## 1
Amino acid sequence: MSQRQVYLVTLPGKAFYCEVQTIAGQPRWAFTSTERMRYIGPPWIQPLEPEEVHALVADWWATKKALAQDM
């Protein structure tokens, strides 16, 4: 059995614990903020290096914030 990997990604003003979880039968990224807000991120496609996880989270968060401003 492989060990679960959890990454800590810090962005300006925000930090997330990131891991892959099975959600509705699909592997997806799950992000939990340091304020304990839980977010379901994009589908998991392949293993990533820590730098790639940081880029993935930064892009996801920027998109999420932009969409929230459009509402």
## 2
Amino acid sequence: MLRKAWNFCAEVPVNFWLLLLISLNLGVGSYYLKFNYALFNPLNHLLIQEWALKLGRENAGKVWWLATLLALLLFLGVNTLVCALKRMIQLWPFRRKMGLRAFSIRVSPSFIHLCFLVILGGHGISLVAGFNGVIPAVPGSVADVPGQGQVHVLQGDCERYPGPGPLQGRIKQCAALLRLEAAGRTEVREVRIMEPVVLGETTFHLDLARGKSPGPNLTILIKEDPGRRFIFWGFVFLIICMLWYFPQRKST
């Protein structure tokens, strides 16, 4: 039974059909995302299990595709792991006969797939662990951040394009000034759109949210992301492996 399951998970056609199903799933999900912004936007500042309990459970007809997507990604991870391990197990007895260089070239794709799994696992950790919070980017807003003390918003405003011109009056960039207080230490940092403040595993993002108010609706997204280091280092080693593998493969 276990051998049949192992062999099934190690088949390349299974990988193809999984990728096809994931693509179709994402296509369906894009439809629900487009017409249910208010339902899915809280995922930016809630862990997925918190979001599922608060919003997802009451809207099962609109979020079912997310459950199937996570299940398909989990199965893709299992399929990739089994394929990589099977390849390494097959090559290992021939390592001395092939020589170090040839063996390294043959086994490199398996290491690339393992790096992909580390990245995928890092995203999984980010979905379910850590801390997510959101506060208005207006003076006086305060939030308690685990491991970082308190964050105070000192000011927040947007710069607009001057006129005359087609962009006159439109938002050019937004910024907020934060005061971070922890363990008797005070630090003032500026966060801008697409320019977050990073303190250890905690990041502070400035977001221009949708709203009915005439002025910009700025919020501070606070995220403690334990999966970020796995995503970063998995990506680094993935690039290193690919930069080494492809030139070596062409020369053999």
